[in-house]
């Protein structure tokens, strides 16, 4: 008899983690623009689960990359929802800077989530390694 379906548990490299998070944030930005009219709040809220998944799916050896790529991915996807102001390139840059400054709480929140998840995973890895070493000595 088969048990309940399991959730995916991929293990991404540091580069794969960054690419996943950036692609997810760009996709979420386009969906936000399409469904909610480019709401920066919706984009920020949607960035939190993407941050958590990035931290959960990165390989153990690359754990430290997750809190680094999360804010970068947030900024990479932000132009999809930032107001361009109708002023060409400089208007787009100003809209991006404004969006980054007004949405910093979501950016820090996602980074904090990724950091906490990575920290908990690292502690569990260290404890598991110590237990294995103790058992092998005995």
Tell me what the structure shows.
This protein is an all-alpha fold. The protein has one domain (14-137). Helix content is 74%, strand content 0%. Helix 1 (14-36) packs antiparallel against helix 2 (40-57) and helix 1 packs parallel to helix 3 (66-77). The longest helix is centred in the last third of the chain and has 34 residues, at 104-137.
Secondary structure elements and pairings:
Layout: H1 14-36, H2 40-57, H3 66-77, H4 88-102, H5 104-137
Number of domains: 1
Q: What is the arithmetic mean of pLDDT? A: 91
Determine the strand fraction and express it as a percent band.
under 5%
Structural class: mainly alpha
In sequence order, what are the helices and strands, one letter per element? HHHHH
- The residue ranges in which pLDDT falls below 50 over 5 or more consecutive positions are none
Largest pleated sheet: none
- Give the proportion of residues in helices: over 70%
Oligomeric grouping of the chains:
single chain
How many angstroms does the end-to-end distance come to?
Answer: 38 Å
Question: In a nutshell, what does this entry contain?
Answer:
The chain has helices spanning 14-36, 40-57, 66-77, 88-102, 104-137. It is mainly alpha-helical and 138 residues long.
Q: What keywords describe this structure?
A:
mainly alpha
């Amino acid at each position: 008899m088969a048990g309940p379906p399991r959730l995916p548990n991929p293990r991404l490299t540091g580069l794969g983690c960054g690419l996943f998070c950036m692609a997810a944030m760009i996709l979420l930005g386009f969906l936000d623009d399409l469904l909610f009219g480019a709401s920066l709040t919706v984009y920020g809220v949607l960035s939190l689960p993407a941050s958590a998944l990035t931290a959960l799916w990165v390989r153990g050896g690359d754990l430290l990359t997750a809190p680094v790529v999360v804010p970068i991915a947030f900024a990479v996807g932000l132009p999809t929802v930032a107001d361009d102001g109708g002023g060409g390139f400089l208007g787009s840059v100003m809209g991006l800077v404004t969006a980054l400054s007004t949405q910093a709480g979501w950016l820090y929140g996602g980074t904090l989530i990724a950091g906490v998840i990575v920290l908990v995973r690292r502690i569990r890895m260290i404890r598991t390694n110590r237990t294995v070493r103790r058992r092998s000595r005995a």
